[in-house]
């Protein structure tokens, strides 16, 4: 017997009707209607956990408010995100988070120079009763000498998103929720230095952290004045990068005489779901950018002269010299005396051109690419 399989459900959110795939959450259904539901512990790349309670909404027939990030849409469901009960919940919850967060003199969450979703929510939804600040006994790893990742327990809301990202996206499980109750913190096995764990220093925990409790050590307190989209040049995948640029003194690898003051202050990924790397980066893409300002960086071709020294040259001169050398080898020893080795850091098009150069221009099949081994 043929059975009709229902693959979508229709529900109502704030009086508007929306059709979503079966199994979709209320949060995604609301987003389809451009209805904003605030979140802290949610990221589309990991399984929803429903632990921060920021996204609670009213669902008709449910006695309690329900987390939109985990609650599944069902046919005929009626959801409200805009009631006084929901607004009161948000204010009360934000009061609690604020009391457990390091504040500045104006009573706002301390700015760490990075995006702080908690501060945004407080500005948008307000807070309820002023609560006495809580001095949570969360510990950090002050002895952790890893060069890139800093954890500030006073800015952590223990949403666990960094831990879930590390588990589910990076598949590394280097960090964990450690301890119990108010002492729960983000730690490692035996509170080891991240360098002594399975951590790959991808920095994904920094990227997902909604409060900036996880931050980049090298760029702490450095500003962003401009963001420039670029393509990572460390391998051929083509990950997109957002280079944060600001006018700050060049310090690493630069000669004292360096006049250049604009530099990259941090690297982030574009939003998940918008580019090939889906919000993820590796250690090289995220942290290896000091070479940009290094005084020994090669910026132009060099040709070795009769004096044995390298001298600056134009690209035309350099390419002509290479062609002359390759033709000389072919004339003296035959085409198979040549070998062409390409790199996985090149694009597919560049690798294609390399084998074309080898086969069509010089007549040898001695061509290889490092990723082929
Ligand atoms: S840097 Fe990457 S691997 Fe290391 S703890 Fe963070 S998410 Fe896990
Ligand atoms: S460090 Fe950030 S992502 Fe991790 S639990 Fe704390 S607030 Fe959440
Ligand atoms: S975003 Fe839904 S509980 Fe955290």
What does the model show?
Strands 2-1-5-3-4 form a 5-stranded mixed sheet, with helices on both faces. The protein has a 3-stranded antiparallel sheet with strand order 10-11-12. A two-stranded antiparallel ribbon has the order 6-9. The protein has helices spanning 26-32, 84-99, 117-125, 161-168, 204-208, 283-287, 315-333, 348-361, and strands at 8-13, 16-21, 56-59, 66-67, 78-80, 149-151, 176-178, 185-187, 214-216, 226-231, 240-247, 262-268, 302-304, 310-312, 340-342, 367-369. The protein is elongated. The chain is α+β, with helices and mostly antiparallel strands and 373 residues long. The longest helix is centred in the last third of the chain and has 19 residues, at 315-333. The protein is 22% helix and 18% strand. One iron/sulfur cluster (SF4) is lined by residues 149, 165-166, 170, 172, 174-175, 199-205. FE2/S2 (inorganic) cluster is lined by residues 39-42, 50-55, 67, 69. One of its GO terms (cellular component) is membrane. One of its GO terms (biological process) is respiratory electron transport chain. Residues 7-85 form the 2Fe-2S ferredoxin-type domain.
